[in-house]
UniProtKB/TrEMBL annotation:
<feature type="modified residue" description="N6-(pyridoxal phosphate)lysine">
    <location>
        <position position="279"/>
    </location>
</feature>
<comment type="similarity">
    <text>Belongs to the class-III pyridoxal-phosphate-dependent aminotransferase family. BioA subfamily.</text>
</comment>
<dbReference type="InterPro" id="IPR015422">
    <property type="entry name" value="PyrdxlP-dep_Trfase_small"/>
</dbReference>
<keyword id="KW-0032">Aminotransferase</keyword>
<comment type="subunit">
    <text>Homodimer.</text>
</comment>
<keyword id="KW-0663">Pyridoxal phosphate</keyword>
<dbReference type="GO" id="GO:0004015">
    <property type="term" value="F:adenosylmethionine-8-amino-7-oxononanoate transaminase activity"/>
</dbReference>
<protein>
    <recommendedName>
        <fullName>Adenosylmethionine-8-amino-7-oxononanoate aminotransferase</fullName>
        <ecNumber>2.6.1.62</ecNumber>
    </recommendedName>
</protein>
<feature type="binding site">
    <location>
        <position position="307"/>
    </location>
    <ligand>
        <name>substrate</name>
    </ligand>
</feature>
<feature type="binding site">
    <location>
        <position position="68"/>
    </location>
    <ligand>
        <name>substrate</name>
    </ligand>
</feature>
<dbReference type="InterPro" id="IPR049704">
    <property type="entry name" value="Aminotrans_3_PPA_site"/>
</dbReference>
<feature type="binding site">
    <location>
        <begin position="126"/>
        <end position="127"/>
    </location>
    <ligand>
        <name>pyridoxal 5'-phosphate</name>
    </ligand>
</feature>
<feature type="binding site">
    <location>
        <begin position="308"/>
        <end position="309"/>
    </location>
    <ligand>
        <name>pyridoxal 5'-phosphate</name>
    </ligand>
</feature>
<comment type="function">
    <text>Catalyzes the transfer of the alpha-amino group from S-adenosyl-L-methionine (SAM) to 7-keto-8-aminopelargonic acid (KAPA) to form 7,8-diaminopelargonic acid (DAPA). It is the only aminotransferase known to utilize SAM as an amino donor.</text>
</comment>
<feature type="binding site">
    <location>
        <position position="391"/>
    </location>
    <ligand>
        <name>substrate</name>
    </ligand>
</feature>
<dbReference type="InterPro" id="IPR015424">
    <property type="entry name" value="PyrdxlP-dep_Trfase"/>
</dbReference>
<feature type="binding site">
    <location>
        <position position="279"/>
    </location>
    <ligand>
        <name>substrate</name>
    </ligand>
</feature>
Length: 427
């Protein structure tokens, strides 16, 4: 039965073609990190399968982004589809307050076993997972400041924004209303004793007011795709223990194998007090995140004042379990090493392009950093002519492809990136 709404269009009548979709998008949709109206129209996608996006005009593009790093198994995967269909037959959603269900419980148990952190709070996005982590730290310690490093990105909500880079980050417009935390310089790629000493002094000077240290392990994602030495994570773990400060690892971008280890913290052999997970958790199917913590943190916090409406959503939990099944079954370490080798070889030629400052690769992450900000539409035109989809930002052109990408498609991605690098202006 259809319920008519007075004064609204017939909901059964949708756009008739790609032109209608594009026009209605321009009329009604506000896209991420964009103005209204958006200066450059987005491309209409009609299908996604494997590692390819099919546009409404018939073009096929190899997706080098894994849909913002989430679709690690590729698109339209039969096992993930099956998990959703089977769960839908039982229930799509029930509230998590006062109720529970098998998919969420099984997921929490698996995440606890994978991380060594036994208590799991299921959230609905990465930013919310960070907010929950910050609340845990504040409630447990009774202190209200955090220490982090410059160049970081932790999400778009207010608590998360407050620990993003305050100068060069995308949230500088809100600097006057955000809490002021303590920022160390961005950690170097190689270990530096002088930097380590300055970091230790900074933490010691503020330890009395700090609830926690929060960092992205090994890779700083949307804050600049910067890689740093794992020894700094070990140092932060030691300093946190020395001064009675919690350590929060934001593994939303780095979790589930992207850097070559299951989690970024594994490069340093440390366990944080609190960990945030998201993005690849459901294989790119549904929004789901998790904040995990030690028994000590959970019991010390007591009643955590947070409760998303869609917390523990059964569909999301079911597809997350299926995604973790796939991760356990597939040789993801070998796949990520193969991608790393292909990125290193394929991007080597871009390093000598006049406009390029640096090329860097870690695991299934390949980055070309330019001297000047990238003209996003112009660079996207270049890579799309090569049959590839990438989304540059700032001075960065980067790829984080699905683990299932084949060698030929990976070569297409690196060829497109190299061509785009050569199209950049001189330094």
């Amino acid at each position: 039965m259809r319920w008519p709404l007075s004064g609204t269009p017939d909901r059964a009548a949708g756009p008739e073609g790609p032109g209608d979709v594009a026009a209605l998008d321009r009329e009604h949709v506000w896209h991420p990190y964009a103005a209204v109206p958006q200066p450059v129209a987005p491309h209409v996608v009609s299908r996604a399968e494997g590692v390819r996006l099919t546009l409404a005009d018939g073009r096929e593009l190899v997706d080098g982004m894994s849909s913002w790093w989430a679709a690690i198994h590729g698109y339209n995967h039969p096992e993930l589809n099956r998990a959703l269909r089977e769960q839908l037959e039982d229930m799509a959603h029930v509230m998590f307050g006062g109720l529970t269900h098998e998919p969420a419980v099984r997921l929490a148990r698996r995440l606890a076993a994978m991380t060594g952190l036994p208590k799991v709070f299921l959230a609905d996005s990465g930013s919310v997972a960070v907010e929950v982590a910050i609340k845990m730290a504040f409630q447990l310690t009774g202190r209200g400041r955090l220490l982090t490093v410059r160049g970081g990105y932790h999400g778009d909500t207010f608590g998360a924004m407050s620990v993003c880079d305050p100068v060069n980050g995308m949230h500088h417009l809100f600097s006057g209303v955000l809490p002021e935390h303590v920022f160390a310089d961005r950690p170097p790629r190689e270990y530096d004793e002088g930097y380590a000493a300055r970091l230790a002094d900074l933490l010691a000077g503020h330890a009395h007011e700090l609830a926690a240290i929060i960092v992205e392990p090994v890779v700083q994602g949307a804050g600049g795709m910067h890689f740093y030495h794992p020894a700094y994570l070990r140092l932060l773990r030691e300093l946190a223990d020395e001064h009675g400060v919690l350590l929060i690892a934001d593994e939303i971008a780095t979790g589930f194998g992207r850097t070559g280890e299951l989690f970024g913290c594994d490069h340093a052999g440390i366990r944080p007090d609190i960990m945030c997970l998201g993005k690849a958790l459901t294989g790119g199917y549904l929004s789901l995140a998790a904040t995990l913590c030690t028994e000590r943190v959970a019991r010390g916090v007591g009643v955590l004042m947070h409760g998303p409406t869609f917390m523990g959503n059964p569909l999301a939990a079911a597809v997350a379990n299926a995604s973790l099944d796939l991760l356990e079954e597939r040789p993801w370490r070998e796949e990520v090493r193969r991608i790393e080798t292909g990125l290193l070889a394929g991007l080597a030629g871009a390093a000598t392009a006049p406009g390029v400052r640096q090329v860097r690769v870690l695991g299934a992450i390949g980055v070309i950093e330019s001297h000047e900000p990238v003209d996003v539409p112009a660079v996207q035109d270049v890579v799309m002519r090569h049959g590839v989809w990438l989304r540059p930002f700032g001075r960065l052109l980067y790829a984080m492809p699905p683990y299932s990408i084949g060698d030929d498609d990976l070569e297409r991605v690196t060829t497109a990136m190299t061509a785009a690098a050569r199209s950049l202006g001189p330094a």
